[in-house]
Amino acid sequence: MRLHVNIEKELEVGEHPEGFLRVIPITGGTFTGKMFNGKILPGGADWNTQIKPDYTHVHAKYCIKENDGTIISVDNEGYINFTEERRIRTIPRFTVSSCDAKYQVFLTGIFVGELDASMSEQGKIEIIIYKLE
């Protein structure tokens, strides 16, 4: 599944015991995949904590809405080491209440994500989510 996420300028919360916290608002977007297509809903955010100058923890929470109206909650967490590259590897987790067999993959599958941070200055992030087989 490929997500094209629209973001706004980060909000600097500031220094705290675990590092420097920035919150990046998620304002919308779209997602596409073999079985799933729809919109990213506004209202989520990435709680992004810079632990060291080149090492950051990312933790985004947001909702996506499938074209049939089903809402899926996404909790996506990972780390980035900027000395190595600008790709972030994440572990997305999903919550969905639908009893439809189509959505059972979100409850039973194991997923990994890859996020390209290079476009963030343009107000967009691309996330690719893979289901492990």
From TrEMBL:
Gene3D superfamilies in the record: 2.40.160.20
Name of the protein this chain belongs to: DUF3237 domain-containing protein
Organism of provenance: Muricoprocola aceti
